[in-house]
Amino acid sequence: MSRCWMAPPPVSWQVGAAHPNPGRLLLPRVPSRVLDPTSLVCPLRAGGHSGGIWQWQGGRALQGRQSTSILHACSILLRGLKCIQELTWLPFSPQLTPSSFLRIGQLSNVDLNEDIHELETEVPRQRPNEIPHNEKLLSLKYESLDYDNSENQLFLEEERRINHAAFRTVEIKRWVICAMIGILTGLVACFIDIVVENLAGLKYRVVKDNIDKFTAKGGLSFSLLLWATLNASVVMVGSLIVAFIETLVIKVCGVILSVVGGLAVGKEGPMIHSGSVIAAGISQGRSTSLKRDFKIFEYFRRDTEKRDFVSAGAAAGVSAAFGAPVGGVLFSLEEGASFWNQFLTWRIFFASMISTFTLNSVLSVYHGNAWDLSSPGLINFGRFDSEKMGYTIQEIPIFIFMGVVGGILGALFNALNYWLTMFRIRYIHRPCLQVVEAMLVAAVTATVGFVMIYCSRDCQPIQGSSVAYPLQLFCADGEYNSMATAFFNTPEKSVVNLFHDPPGSYNPMTLGMFTLMYFFLACWTYGLTVSAGVFIPSLLIGAAWGRLFGISLSYLTKGSIWADPGKYALMGAAAQLGGIVRMTLSLTVIMMEATGNVTYGFPIMLVLMTAKIVGDYFVEGLYDMHIQLQSVPFLHWEAPVTSHSLTAREVMSTPVTCLRRIERVGTVVDILSDTSSNHNGFPVVESNPDTTQVAGLRGLILRSQLIVLLKHKVGDAAWRLGCVCCPCLRPLAGCLAQLAEGPCHLPQLTQGMGAAFWWWGYPSTILHPTGLTSPE
User: Fold this and answer.
1) What residue ranges are annotated as transmembrane (predicted)?
2) Residue 631: strand, helix, or coil
3) Alpha helix (H) ranges present in 323-471?
């Protein structure tokens, strides 16, 4: 819904308004503006037109916070008013303008939480050409979707032409698109899994044969060099294509090469992004990367439709990764979607089921079991038999304790990764350096794995073992090195081995050393310029220390039947993953579906909740932390609890950038080209020659609509002649094309331009005393 606020007495600063419908999707860089203090104020669109900047007129340009909550920023502003007389202002100059400040480093919106005191004592000084990265700044490069349909006359005219039969056809097409999303996401997952299995198998066979060959001849240094070189070479290719190209195909190839290269990564995480990309492309019936328009699904080229289909794509990606369709739906609800309704739930669940069924069918045929359908996801944790691996009421406190451990280790992981990411942002920001770092991590990972295998003397009998590539090394004939089952394998298979290998398969020292080394390797790896996920590395770390915990408990209880190491490996995996990513609802269901055991639902839920509570006490989750580090505008679900006393008048500002009913083309071009006012919507007002009177609000028009009108050179006359229809304007409406060449193709910049048929004539308004936390 769009809003306007009635203005209070004049103020000299301006702050944009917050998104009234909070959610998990990224919010835009574009601020809403307000009108003159004596007129109506602040048209605010739900979803796509949020955020804002703060500007002291005649003074220094500052930016307001737009990520976690604009309401919190408002409270900081109010405290700043008390010391406004003490501030030392830096006057504007031609060398430093609001627009140039916005362009520096492509960052905006400074969080004033810790900067109020600095502003009180700041003196004018020469500004550098660049400002260092600050995670409290918000980037200008992000755009949000326009989540509301602009109900202008053109839109209403098109809707009137659609009858009941046409609406039924549209609904059928929605289900068809969801099916296509599920099928294509499942096929992409199949391709990734098959290629990774073959390439990783080839690499491990070559390295294993080489190690076996040179162990007797004393040439293990050559084996180490070969392993490290293979890893670094494969990762180099994957990092190169990710650092310089960003498409779905490149992402798929990147995750394949990252996993084959032996990095501490998983191929499940990127499936969420891949599914979303597939949904965004299929639902629009065109490909921006291939520059192809297939002339289908044109009705769905609206941001509201695209938003829902992307949510379905994210759920389909989770479903394909873990074989958890219900978990995929809950993941989309918990982490991906800003808007939700009953019909959307059905369509997302349908896409998730189609995705896992497609993957299951293709992989079953590939593995020679066409009618078995035993591969529902990229990773299959295997079934946990409740009769053999049940739990008792006495173990509930033990599981809660494991959740505490997982929360602490997860907080440590996130804190270390935070400082590592800050180092990368400041010193490893060039693509060539990012590729070199990825190669270095791959070589170090191979070296650490080789040294750990070499130093380990944990030998286990090969007979009855499920190890795919057993390394004998210095073990006796018929035995293999158990450390190799963790390092010399894909992470997914290592997790399954830790879950289901019989007691006695691992020495406690082996598990302890592996947990320590892999913890730091995974922390170093996350954030590299490669396609990778954190799900599987987190599960592997947790499974290792969880199994170690189970073995220790078994020693303490002298072999009690409820001290099974595999069961505690599962709880440790859930605790570690929950402590890092801080997911609860969806992760509980994903773990239940992946293990095929509902019995463990309650202890898994307890472990995840405990890990989240403990982890949140120290540091925020990994995803939220990286959103902040990447300067991505983000708005949380809830407003700060202390913001209930704030009203609309306290975040209003002046002057507003507005358009008259009949505006010159040159004026419109200048407004859209002005980088200091990145508005996404403009109020349309009635011209009033008497400046003492309030200008009347007539409607709201979006930046995307203005760009489309300018590109097509459309005016009211074209509408009256029937030369323009909504479908012919829609293809450009979603892409927000730049106006670099716009003025060159507008021959008459002084010509009047009317947009009466395109603006939204009925935006909602609220009064200035309205509380910011009041419901819509």
Assistant:
1) 174-199, 220-242, 248-266, 309-331, 343-366, 396-416, 436-455, 509-528, 534-556, 568-592, 598-619
2) coil
3) 325-331, 342-366, 396-427, 431-455
